[in-house]
Amino acid sequence: MIHNKRSIKNRLFFIIVLTSTIVLLIAGLLFIAFRTVQLKQDMTSSLTIQAGVIADNAQAIIVFGDKDEASNSLASLKYDPQVIYALLLNDEKQVLAHYRRPGSNLLIEPGTVDELLTEHSVFSETEHYLVYARPIYSQANKIGHVILYADFSRYWKLLTRAALVVAIVIVLALFVALFLSYILQKLISKPIESLANFVSTVTEGQNYELRTENKSYVEIEQLAAAFNQLLEQIHHAISARDQAQHQLRTYSFQLEDLVYQRTRQLEEAKEAAEASSRAKSAFLANMSHEIRTPMNAIVVFTKLALNAAESPHQQQQLKRALESADLLLALIDDLLDFSRIDANKMELDYQNCNLFEILISINQMLTAKFVEKGLEFIIDVSEAVPRFIQTDSLRLKQVLINLLTNAIKFTETGQVRLSIAINTSGPTPQMTFCISDTGIGMDRETVARIFEVFSQADVSTTRKYGGTGLGLSISKKLVALMGGNLSVDSQPGQGSRFSFSLPLKSALPDYDKAIISRSASSMPAVLIVEPRQQSREHLLGLLQSLGCSVDSVETGIGALALLAQRHYHHLLINRDLQDADAFDLVRQIRAEPQLAGVSISLMDSLLGEQAIKQFSETVTPVGYLKTPVFDRALLCQHLMQNHHEAEPQVLPQSRRSAQTHTLSSVLIVDDYHINRLLIIDILQGQAERFLEAGNGREALEILRKEKVDLVLMDIQMPEMDGFEATRQIRQQLQLTALPVIGMTAFAAESDRRQCYQAGMNDVLTKPIDIDQLKKMFNLLSKGRPKLAAEDNASPPVLSTYRLSGIDVESGLSRLSNDEEKYKKLLVLFYKSYRSKESLLEDYLEQKNWAAAEAWLHALKGVCANLSISSVNDSCARLYEQLKNRSVDQQDLQQFKRHFTEVIQDLQQLAESEP
């Protein structure tokens, strides 16, 4: 016999009892519901009759205002036990009589009575009582009201009694169901138990020649016959099993040989694929260098010719050639980025950066395109967005420029808006970027394939607007690498909206709110003169968020009319007005004596800065506000400055041009003769003489004989490349203080780090930007270091040491380029963390996760502040893994390697300290 909780016997018993219980409960609930409705109907009907009788008897009482008779009329309610309170009122809502049942503590609020006095009968129900109010009419005129309050206590007593009866019936019925189910389940369970016992006998004895006969029910007989047939098949299967096992052993040996052969083939295929990938990467690197080298000469020589050209026709031709070269370089960059992403070689470099500086840089790059097409460009940054964030600024800028350039390309009129906001609805805060335009838009089919490689809307679009279709594909993949998803929403003729969200990592404290809050109480009254509606509304919102009292108009005439009616402290005037010239409007305002104290700022793009500055210097002082305006803190500072300064106030303030200096000798090392001539042309007049070398070996020979103040070193050269040449300069020639600037066709952060590790002071990316080269040249000329042979007593600088994994330039920028202070901090880091390479492993072996997290968190903070980027990145990866109480051994070994390299490199720096 089998008796357990999962037996059919127990299941049948349970099903019968459960079915009976459910049916009884449903019936009981239905009865209680019916009884509930019936009791309420009886209660309502009783109140209606009582109120009708009182209303009929009270007509004469209300007319004559007889309060005694009114009280006698309500006194009859004492025979109705459910009525606990009653009111008789005249038409003026005055109480003629009231009745309260003895022992009742019901309190009536006046406001609740007024709600019941309507033209019709009203029922109102609360948790403890039912109210019925009825108007009293005499000859079709309402003369008063009668209100009755009935207690629910009697109702609940009757309902409780009914529920008790139902419960007793259900319990008795359940006992009957239990008895019947116990009897009935045996009729089915006994034949099944008999068959189960037979199965158990066959299984335990493994005697597959036994057969069963069970004639209780048709279904059980069919099951027994099927089981007998199964036993017959098992008997035949056992005899065939031995033969199959022998064949299986034979096949197993053959399979092992086949697996070994396939494994060898896969290993060979893998080695071939890796070799192909390495060859592809090397080919891309070489092709990039070979293409950029002549393009460098084309771009820079064209710029030089453009600066020297006097004919407008020649300038126009040169500009077109320069635009074509820039397009070709952009295409090369896109292809290289796509290849890196496709090969999983793209590395992100997260650094602390100023988001607003990124937006300013993007605006500077795209201003000319917006002005050329006459588009309105708005940057809307939410107040919650921090100024300082941790991100890969280069890739974020690349994505935003791609999306904005795409919006400009497909928008003929209207506006392009870049919005940045914070989304805190999810588990982690997200920073959301949205680029919307009023362009041609896209249909569903185009949206579905817009992110495919080399894809555009259609052939006609490609012919009209140009482009390769790589930009959006690269942008989507870059956003995915940064932890987001780029999506698009568009309809034909209604523009497009691209958006993506990235995890928010605030880098430094945000002081903007403190600056704004300190100035909130003294913000001036401002008048905006802006003909474009969207920009006007955007400026209005910015100024109102600062606490300014703001008005806005579209035209100069409207501004003059408002100035005659109200006093303003500051005027923000768009230079491009529709009804007047902005300069003439300023002259007209300045001519009015009552407006002498008003401060004026003209708003224009970067292209209008010089004209506004010249007007301010020669005619009347005005401020300059660069559009689009989006930085609340700088706008607040601009408004709070002296409104009567003669010089225009620039937002952000422009830097003064650096004075040029002259070096005695510059060595240019490049295997491409045209590039050497190009750099000589750029720096002509800023150095006394130029020396040339075609490779690193020739450069070393020159440096052995000549004194040189600066070396411009190409990276890829025959015989000896720039990396090896720089290492020889530092180690063999001991020219540790000689500035060496690398020139490379690669712009990735890993390539720049490789240049710094070789001993270079800085890196220029080809094609060489003239302004960047001159700026770097002037900075080196100002504080020109002497050679070691010239002054042995001078203290060594950080560039003389090999500091792998440390971004010295970034670290110095945090300390206002105070190299001595930065050096002391690095030495302090060395003394604090030397001999602690194995401390993290000890914590992990002890599974002391809290201590490991705390140690990593502290180390990451120190490395971030000192720009020790390699250790900082490794700490970040391990810290995220520790949240899951495990670490990747490969990442752990990489951390140890970076940490050891930094400590070893800092050791020589520490030993040089007195």
Structure description:
With 914 residues, the protein is an alpha/beta fold. The protein is built from 29 helices and 22 strands. The strands form five sheets. A five-stranded antiparallel sheet has the order 2-1-5-4-3. Strands 7-9-10-12-11 form a five-stranded mixed sheet, with helices on both faces. Strands 14-13-15-16-17 form a five-stranded parallel sheet, sandwiched between helices. α21 (722-731) links the parallel β20 (710-714) and β21 (740-744). The model is unreliable at 457-463, 642-660 and 784-796 (pLDDT under 50).
Q: Fill in the CATH topology of the largest domain.
A: Heat Shock Protein 90
Percentage of residues in DSSP E strands: 5-15%
Number of helices: 29
- Whole-Å distance between the termini? 94 Å
**Corresponding CATH superfamily of the largest domain:** Histidine kinase-like ATPase, C-terminal domain
Shape: flat
The residue-averaged pLDDT reads: 78
Residue ranges: pLDDT <50 for 5 or more in a row? 457-463, 642-660, 784-796
